[in-house]
Design brief:
Layout (H helix, E strand, L loop, with lengths): L5 H43 L4 H26 L14 H11 L3 E2 L3 E5 L4 E9 L4 E9 L4 E9 L8 E16 L3 E20 L7 E13 L7 E10 L1 E15 L3 E3 L5 E14 L4 E6 L4 E3 L3 E5 L1
Parallel strand pairs: 1-6
Antiparallel strand pairs: 2-15, 3-6, 4-5, 5-13, 5-14, 6-12, 7-10, 7-11, 7-13, 7-14, 7-15, 8-9, 8-12
C-alpha cells in the first residue's frame, strides 16, 4: 500500500484557492469602478458645502488612531495567554507519516463507521488585498494535535469608497480511507473553534465604510474525481455601523456529500477552514483570531462506508 501523493493535494488546493482569489479580486475591481464615480460625486458635494479638506483628513486620522487602540484592547481582553487544553505535540512529519501508514491506516471491508483522528496532510495559505490600510494573516497547523492556528486581520484606510483592505486565510487537513470493497462513502465532520473576533465600522453620510468577518468550514471527497463541496458558515458579521467583539468558542458538525468509490484505492477527505475579513474606510477593523494557544480543533472525521 503506497501513500497518496501529497503534491497532488497541494497543487489541487493551490488551483482551487487561486480561482477563488481571482473571483474576489475581480469583485473588488468591479466595486471599485463604481465607487470611484460615487467618491467623485461626494467630494464635489463636500466641496460645495465648503467642508475644509484638513478637517476631513483630521477625521480620517482620528478614526485610524482610535481603531488601533480598540484593536489592542480587544486582543488583550480575548486572546488566551496559555494553553488550556492538550499541548501541541511535536512530531516529525516523516515519523508521523510512517506511523499513519503502519499503525493507523483507516480501512474498511464491511459497511460501518471508521474513525480517522490523525490528519494525513496539512496545507495552508494567506491571501491579502491592501490599498493603504493594514492587512495581516498567518497560518500553521499540527497534525499530531489535530489543530490549526489561523489568523486574519484587516484595518481600513481612506473614505472607503475605493479603499479595500482584505485578508483571506485558509487551512486544510486531509484524511485518508482505504475501502476494500466497492461501496459509497460520506464523512461526518465535527469542528471546534476556540478564538475571538472583532468588527468595527463607523459609517457617516459623507463616506462609505463597512467591515466583514466570515468564518466557514467545508468538506469534499476524492477518489478519481472530486465530490461536490459541502460548506457550512460557522460565523459571520457584517455592517456599515457596528462595534462588536467577543470569544468564538463554538462546536458545529455536518456531513460531506456521498460518493461512490472503488475497492483498494485511497479515498481522501479534504477538510477546509476559511477566514475572511474585509474593511473599507479609515477606522474600520475586522479580525478573526485562532492563534496559539487558541486554535481550530478537528477531533477527527468519521468515514461512513456502505
Amino acid at each position: 500500500m503506497e501513500m497518496f501523493d501529497k503534491n497532488f493535494l497541494n497543487e489541487a488546493s493551490e488551483m482551487e484557492v487561486a480561482a477563488e482569489v481571482a473571483q474576489m479580486e475581480q469583485a473588488i475591481l468591479d466595486k471599485k469602478e463604481q465607487g470611484q464615480e460615487s467618491e467623485a460625486e461626494m467630494l464635489e458635494l463636500i466641496k460645495h458645502l465648503k467642508f475644509k479638506p484638513e478637517a476631513i483628513e483630521a477625521e480620517i486620522q482620528k478614526e485610524k488612531e482610535l481603531a488601533e487602540i480598540k484593536a489592542r484592547e480587544t486582543e488583550e481582553a480575548f486572546q488566551l495567554q496559555k494553553e488550556e487544553g492538550l499541548c501541541v505535540e511535536t512530531v516529525g512529519e516523516e515519523i508521523l507519516d510512517q506511523l499513519v501508514l503502519e499503525t493507523n491506516v483507516v480501512s474498511g471491508g464491511t459497511p460501518g463507521h471508521y474513525l480517522d483522528v490523525t490528519p494525513y496532510h496539512f496545507w495552508c495559505h494567506v491571501s491579502r488585498h491592501n490599498e493603504g490600510g493594514v492587512t495581516r494573516g498567518s497560518c500553521s497547523g499540527s497534525r499530531a494535535s489535530r489543530k490549526m492556528f489561523l489568523y486574519a486581520h484587516a484595518q481600513g484606510d481612506g473614505l472607503g469608497w475605493t479603499d479595500d483592505n482584505d485578508v483571506t486565510t485558509y487551512g486544510r487537513f486531509f484524511y485518508a480511507f482505504w475501502p476494500r470493497k466497492i461501496g459509497t462513502v460520506r464523512v461526518f465532520l465535527p469542528v471546534v473553534t476556540r478564538g475571538w473576533y472583532q468588527i468595527r465600522s463607523n459609517d457617516k453620510w459623507w463616506n462609505s465604510k463597512e467591515a466583514v468577518v466570515d468564518l466557514r468550514a467545508s468538506v469534499r471527497l476524492y477518489q478519481n474525481y472530486w465530490s461536490p463541496t459541502v460548506e457550512r458558515r460557522l460565523f459571520r458579521r457584517a455592517d456599515d455601523n457596528i462595534n462588536e467583539s467577543g470569544r468564538l468558542d463554538l462546536y458545529q458538525a455536518f456531513y460531506s456529500a456521498s460518493m461512490a468509490v472503488g475497492a483498494n484505492k485511497w479515498v481522501i477527505a479534504q477538510v477546509s477552514l476559511r477566514l475572511r475579513v474585509e474593511t473599507e474606510g479609515s477606522g474600520t477593523l475586522a479580525t478573526l483570531s485562532f492563534r496559539n494557544p487558541d486554535c481550530i480543533f478537528i477531533p477527527g472525521v468519521r468515514f461512513e462506508f456502505a
